[in-house]
Specification:
Layout lengths: L6 H7 L2 H9 L6 H17 L4 H18 L7 H13 L7 H11 L12 H14 L3 H11 L6 H16 L3 H19 L4 H11 L1
């Protein structure tokens, strides 16, 4: 639909209520439906620039609702983060303060849910985009990820080790030295883990 509707016509028929109703469909159990909705939302955002600010706010609201007002069983978070990945990729440098706030108050807290595995790949991409654009953010990102470290969830622990590896690979030595102590302190604890997969993943990072 969005492919064949011009901006003038779109302003008349693709309203804010239409967009909000569209976003509710992300909670569908049907993966194919969620993927189709993702593509439609992506195209609306790309084509109808007058809706972009509202769409960013609405997409943020969905994520905040998931983080703070649900039992973390909501569908569609991975698809929404995939849309955000494209949006973040288009951010110019230096980053606006509102974008850094999104990183701190939305993306970082998304590391806390136990079922993070279902959207972690998309989350890592979003966070990595921020760090690549402004390396200085690596310090606060790593510090906050370490605060989200699980106590008994080995699968989540493996994912976070991999995320730390990706972040560290994308920063220069100056910033690495600022985060080296807390990172290696955490990895030292992982070495003693009873879970072989955690230990194996940790050893890869140490190579």
């Amino acid at each position: 639909m969005a492919l064949h509707v011009g901006p003038t016509t779109g302003e008349k028929f693709i309203s804010q209520n239409f967009i909000l109703n569209l976003l509710t469909l992300f909670n569908s159990d049907d993966l194919r439906e969620r993927d189709a909705i993702k593509n439609i939302v992506h195209r609306i955002y790309s084509k109808f620039t007058f809706h972009r600010s509202f769409m960013r706010k609405s997409l943020t609201d969905v994520l905040l609702h998931f983080i703070y007002e649900t039992d973390h069983r909501q569908n569609g978070i991975g698809e929404i983060l995939e849309i955000w990945g494209s949006i973040i990729n288009g951010f110019t440098v230096p980053l606006k303060e509102q974008h850094k706030v999104f990183l701190s108050r939305v993306l970082i807290p998304l590391h806390k849910p136990k079922n993070m595995v279902v959207y972690h790949r998309q989350l890592v991409y979003c966070v990595s985009q921020f760090v690549q654009k402004e390396t200085v953010l690596s310090r606060v990102v790593i510090e906050k990820i370490l605060r989200c470290w699980p106590v008994t969830n080995c699968q989540k622990e493996v994912l976070l080790i991999g995320e730390l590896e990706e972040i560290v690979e994308n920063i220069d030595q100056r910033w690495y030295l600022m985060v080296a102590v807390p990172v290696w302190s955490r990895l030292a604890k992982c070495i003693t883990s009873d879970n072989s997969q955690v230990t194996k993943t940790n050893n890869y990072l140490g190579d």
